[in-house]
Design brief:
Blueprint: H1 4-13, H2 33-41, H3 46-52, E1 88-93, E2 102-107, E3 116-124, H4 127-133, E4 148-156, E5 176-183, H5 189-192, E6 203-204, E7 222-225, E8 229-233, H6 240-243, H7 249-259, E9 267-271, H8 275-286, E10 291-296, H9 299-307, E11 312-315, H10 321-330, E12 336-341, H11 346-355, E13 356-364, H12 378-383, E14 387-390, H13 396-409, E15 419-424, H14 428-433, E16 442-446
Parallel strand pairs: 9-10, 9-12, 10-11, 12-13, 13-14, 15-16
Antiparallel strand pairs: 1-2, 3-4, 3-7, 3-16, 4-5, 5-6, 5-8
Helix pairs in contact: 1-13, 7-8, 7-13
The structure holds zinc ion (2 copies).
Residues 184-185, 187-188, 190-191, 199-201 line the site of one zinc ion.
């Protein structure tokens, strides 16, 4: 099997510096960008503007790259009533668990330098969003949930440096893109120590309150990207349903395998066959792992894991020895090279330490909710020379790797089959009321249902 993903990694790692969009604020001008655009698009309105603004410069033509909304009215227009001049965006507002999501309209923002507006084409709902909706994960509300999102760039702030993607290439209106779940400053202690996802002034999509940044979530018609967001182009060959989880599960797994220095020739144990575990199985297979062993409580999920490259599956049950016997057999008694904990189970953490070979590595990813403490013997870690790493979220380079992986490998693994249902934004409450779709890992949400389209 070709391994384009591995071959691309060193190339991708050179790109790390280019991920932040410009930070400069718009210049303090008496003339706001929308006033200039109004002059350019509708000269007769200039009389009104001139009456309130002095010393207007003359612009011979409107900028070529972007289309701009004309703000002659604050009436509530449906954003798609005139696709070239939307002025509002619908968004589903989460207030608190147990209360229906509220479909509201928000005016589209006036963009500051480094910002852009994206028209959302598709979002998938992450398990963490469902935890929030069901009250299992506290989130400050009201907020617009959803962070697995792709869309097309509608416009940028016309001032400031031209925006670029993670690779440093210029972006243009109409580009199909995804973006990092977190935006970072690029300059604080954590950003300078290769941990931009822990930036001191972190901004997270799908997590910000609407009074701070109303259009930050994927459950909306538009998303307002702030400066410091890592943006990656999504090739048209990649379908919406496959591309949406890239900026959550796929990028996180890419980050975990970066921490593990890849999977080539390794025996890899993956705990949990959810979105993270299935993606990890596919990525480990793609990186030529010697064996990919997946565990889960569900036989149905393990059957799916085999479609994603698992060479062995072990159903977790009362008999804990089944897994250790399987690992003993698969590794000729030596133990596993790499364990990826994607389930969040403390028992899986404890078991991994027993199953690792001397010099093996455990990467913890799934423990993103409170659990009982895991018991571990420090002496075991020392004597077995084990390595334990934690990974939360990812870097911009991981997101770029995730898209590269999906482009290269989506034909090999049935990622699109993980999304079972497509609903419209306005149908979300009804979908939640019927308890979703237990047979599939994701639901896709679109402004309007129009089929899975790459264009
Ligand atoms: Zn997520
Ligand atoms: Zn920072």
């Amino acid at each position: 099997m070709p391994n384009n993903f591995t071959r691309c990694r060193s190339e991708l790692q050179k790109r790390r510096k280019a991920y932040c969009l410009p930070q400069r604020p718009c210049p303090d001008s008496a003339i706001q960008p929308w006033q200039l655009r109004r002059l350019i698009a509708l000269p007769w309105i200039a009389i009104d503007v001139i009456s309130t603004t002095l010393n207007l410069p003359f612009f011979p033509s409107r900028p070529a790259e972007a289309s701009f909304p004309v703000r002659e009215s604050r009436m509530n227009h449906h954003p798609h009533a005139s696709t070239s001049h939307p002025i509002n965006s619908r968004a589903l507002v989460f207030h608190q668990s147990g209360r229906p999501l509220e479909l509201r309209e928000f005016p589209l923002p006036e963009l500051q330098a480094g910002e852009m507006l994206v028209e959302i084409t598709c979002s998938t709902i992450c398990g963490s969003d469902l935890h929030t909706i069901h009250g299992d994960r506290p989130v400050a509300g009201p907020t617009v949930l959803g962070h697995e999102t792709i869309g097309r760039i509608l416009r940028f702030c016309p001032t400031g440096s031209p925006p670029t993607d993670v690779a440093g290439n210029r972006l243009a209106a109409g580009d199909r893109v995804t973006w990092s779940v977190a935006a970072s400053c690029g300059d604080c202690f954590h950003c300078r120590h290769a941990l931009p996802q822990k930036c001191d002034t972190l901004f997270k999509y799908g997590h910000e309150t609407i009074d701070r940044h109303p259009l930050s979530g994927g459950l909306a018609d538009f998303c307002h990207l702030t400066s410091g967001t890592a943006v990656v182009r999504v090739p048209d060959a990649l379908s919406d349903l496959v591309a949406c989880p890239a900026n959550c599960a796929t990028a996180t797994v890419a980050g975990a395998l970066r921490v593990a220095a890849g999977c080539a020739t390794k025996s890899v144990l993956i705990h949990g066959a959810g979105m993270l575990g299935l993606t990890a199985a596919a990525m480990a297979t793609w990186q030529n792992a010697a064996a990919v062993i997946v565990t889960d409580l569900s036989a149905q999920r393990l059957a799916r894991a085999r479609e994603f490259g698992a060479t062995h599956t072990v159903q977790i049950g009362p008999d804990a020895s089944a897994l250790s016997e399987a690992i003993h057999r698969i590794t000729d008694g030596r133990g596993i090279d790499l364990a990826l904990e994607m389930s969040g189970s403390p028992a899986a953490v404890e078991q991994s330490l027993d199953l690792l070979r001397i010099g093996g590595q455990l990467v913890l990813v799934g423990s993103v909710f409170p659990t009982r403490p895991a018991q571990l013997l420090p002496e075991k870690i020392v004597r077995k020379v084990l390595r334990i790493d934690g990974l939360h979220n990812y870097t911009p380079a991981d997101l770029s790797d995730a898209i590269e992986f999906l482009v290269a490998a989506a034909g090999e693994f049935p990622f699109a089959s993980l999304v079972g249902t497509e609903i419209e934004l306005a149908e979300m409450n009804a979908y939640l009321a019927r308890n979703g779709d237990a047979d599939h890992i994701r639901v896709a949400v679109r402004a309007r249902k129009s089929g899975d389209s790459a264009s």
